[in-house]
Amino acid sequence: RCTSARAENRGGRRPPDGGKRKSVFGMSCAPLGLSWFATSPRTAPSRRRGSAFRIPRASTSAPDADDGELDSVYPEGDWRNAALEASLSDEGRMHREARGRNVTYMLKVTYDGEAYLGFQYQPRDATVQGEIEKALSKLTGEDRDFLGVGASGRTDTGVHARGQVVHFYARRPLPDLTRARKSLNGMLPKDIRVVELRRPHPAFHARFHAVRKTYHYYLDTRLEHDVFTRKHAMHCGWKPPDMERLRAAAAVLVGTHDFSAFSNQSRDASVVRDPTRTIYRFDVVELEDGLVRLEVEGNGFLYRMVRNMVGAVMLAATKKGAGAGDVEAMLAGKDRRVAPMGAPPHGLFLHEVVYPAALVEWTPPGEDGEASAENE
């Protein structure tokens, strides 16, 4: 069975249960006989630097964001298209300016999710958003309500990021983006870093305007876990996956499907979401020293969808007699109750988020473009 060590409490920040982590994965999943997951720690991200904001394949130029050329990036009828049009409208601009939100900024953030109860702000718990908002408040003098911090996605407890994207608002332009980034990092905990700060189009929204995301999940297939990677890779050395079956199972999930079987109940149960998503690729990359990286790229993901997909393909690659056909049956059944339990959070990284060039590669009027972007 997969095992991992208990994560150390960091910086005095403890979860609500006093630091005792309940085993989420040690129970048996009767329909498919999955019982090899064990308790997972909160974990640390790789020190590898994230890639820069990447321009989507569908957009090779950087036109004005309101000239209609973004239609090739957003499929007709996509909900993001409606959000894009609303934010670029005169009404959207007037709404921002009425609140004094005259300037929009974009952060690319990397963080170790081990010590935090997820990204989303919680008033009585340590979260990534909470730490970012405290630093931004000191930098700008504004409160969290005015800053309007939003992210490309709300990562769960114990999940990490190399390429999380965040937006916030300011009343006036920051005079020096390099100094601003350094100031933010001086105020942030050491497990959160701002690696890029830029000024995108004023209508930019980190969540609504994302056109694709890439997640990485790490496996440690060595018999004994490595002490230096145990916090950011799921150890499965006692029952390593068959790589051929793992790749075949992953290939089943590529394409446009109804992923109901791979989505947990949303945190907002009142919201009904379309379970159809498109997975562009699900690659299995064998690294050195028994590490395996699962790379999943898609146009969007449901709640815990990536971890549930990893649990399914790992079942197909480890259980005797199982294979890609089991994943096909899960996909066709559209029933979360008969799919295996999701993989633990500590192996998951939000690797990259992609946006239209028209929103990211934007130069404020009267500037030469050099001041609009800064990166580490």
Question: How would you characterize the overall build of this protein?
Answer:
With 376 residues, the protein is an alpha+beta fold. It has two domains: 69-210, Alpha-Beta Plaits; 212-351, 2-Layer Sandwich (Alpha-Beta Plaits), CATH 3.30.70. The protein has nine helices and eleven strands. It has helices at residues 79-88, 90-98, 128-140, 144-147, 177-187, 243-252, 305-318, 324-333, 357-360; strands at residues 103-111, 150-151, 160-170, 192-198, 212-220, 234-235, 255-258, 276-286, 291-298, 348-354, 373-375. Strands 1, 2, 3, 4, 5, 6, 7, 8, 9, 10 and 11 form an eleven-stranded mixed sheet that branches. Strand 8 and strand 9 (291-298) form a beta hairpin. Helix 7 (305-318) packs antiparallel against helix 8. The radius of gyration is 21 Å and the shape is globular.
Outline the fold blueprint.
Elements: H1 79-88, H2 90-98, E1 103-111, H3 128-140, H4 144-147, E2 150-151, E3 160-170, H5 177-187, E4 192-198, E5 212-220, E6 234-235, H6 243-252, E7 255-258, E8 276-286, E9 291-298, H7 305-318, H8 324-333, E10 348-354, H9 357-360, E11 373-375
Parallel strand pairs: 3-10, 5-6
Antiparallel strand pairs: 1-3, 1-4, 2-3, 4-11, 5-9, 5-10, 7-8, 8-9
